[in-house]
Design goal:
Strand order of the largest sheet: 1-2
Strand content: 5-15%
Number of domains: 1
Number of strands: 2
Order of helices and strands: HEHHE
Oligomer: single chain
Distance between the termini: 27 Å
Largest sheet: 2 strands, parallel
Shape: globular
Length: 62
């Protein structure tokens, strides 16, 4: 999968990955890496889309 550091492409991919309005922490971190976006910016995009993070690798989100 190749995603440019383009906010609209990233939004589309988040919506594509999300199931029932949720995305896993692993998927989010992987998308940040692939799109060369820092995790904080990706987190803001996820929040703006009202998508929840599940299975947090740090145990912060349930």
């Amino acid at each position: 999968m190749k995603i440019n550091n383009n906010q609209e492409e990233i939004k589309r991919e988040i919506l594509n990955l999300s199931k029932e309005g949720k995305i896993t922490c692993f998927q989010a971190l992987n998308l940040a890496k692939i799109s060369k976006t820092n995790p904080q910016n990706l987190g803001k995009i996820i929040n703006d889309l009202k998508i929840k993070i599940k299975n947090c690798q740090l145990g912060c989100f349930k």
